Amino acid sequence: MEWPPIFTCDNYSKTITDSLQYCRENKGLLVHAYVIMPTHVHLILSAGGPVSLSEIIRDFKKYTSRATTRLLNADANHLFLWVFKRAAQKASEGSTHKVWTDDNHPETITSESFFRQKLDYLHDNPRRKGLVDSPDHWLYSSAKTYYLGVRGVLDVDYLEW
């Protein structure tokens, strides 16, 4: 199933960044890199506190799913609500709306060169999709932080090698 471009409006993307920031401040989440694409999110994360990364991601998905559904209801966005409702029905998980897919595609980053490879791939995503001419032009990305030294919409926790 092709996911709808939910993150093309700032208030939906802000739900993601606000939730990630909350997890940074309250759950020990370390956000090393991010890109919020129109239909999905790319993240390089780790846990730096007592809460495991899988627990943080579970809570993040649960909260942002509910918050996004509330926003869609407030915006009377019946098309996206229908898509997410249908996805929940197909998944038969008991939830009313399914905003996120089940898979996360986690990969353990064990070296600086592998991190750089993933970082460049992640940041280049908006350019590869034809959304911007340069990765640092995408608002919801840590590219400008890494490439220009300018703070983006979300703080970044740098990895020390």
Describe the protein in words:
The mean pLDDT is 88. This protein has one domain (6-148): Transposase IS200-like (Alpha-Beta Plaits). The protein has helices at 10-27, 53-74, 78-91, 112-128, 143-148; strands at residues 29-36, 41-47. Strands 1-2 form a two-stranded antiparallel sheet. By secondary structure, it is mainly alpha-helical. The termini are far apart. Helix 1 runs antiparallel to helix 2 (53-74).
List the helices and strands and how they pair.
Blueprint lengths: L9 H18 L1 E8 L4 E7 L5 H22 L3 H14 L20 H17 L14 H6 L13
Antiparallel strand pairs: 1-2
Helix pairs in contact: 1-2
Note the main attributes of this structure:
mainly alpha, 2 strands, globular, 48% helix, 161 residues, Alpha-Beta Plaits, two-stranded antiparallel ribbon, 5 helices
Please give the CATH architecture.
2-Layer Sandwich
- Domain module tally: 1
Inertia-based shape? globular
Element order: H for helix, E for strand: HEEHHHH
Largest sheet properties: 2 strands, antiparallel
* Content-based structural category: mainly alpha
Q: What's the rounded overall pLDDT mean?
A: 88
Instruction: Name the CATH homologous superfamily.
Output: Transposase IS200-like
Q: How many strands in all?
A: 2
Quaternary state of the chains: single chain
Helical content class: 40-55%
Could you tell me the CATH topology label: Alpha-Beta Plaits
| Strands ordered across the widest β-sheet | 1-2
Percent of residues in β-strands: 5-15%
Taking the alpha carbons of the first and last residues, their distance comes to 39 Å
Task: Write a brief structural summary.
This protein has 161 residues and is mainly alpha-helical. The chain has helices at residues 10-27, 53-74, 78-91, 112-128, 143-148, and strands at 29-36, 41-47.
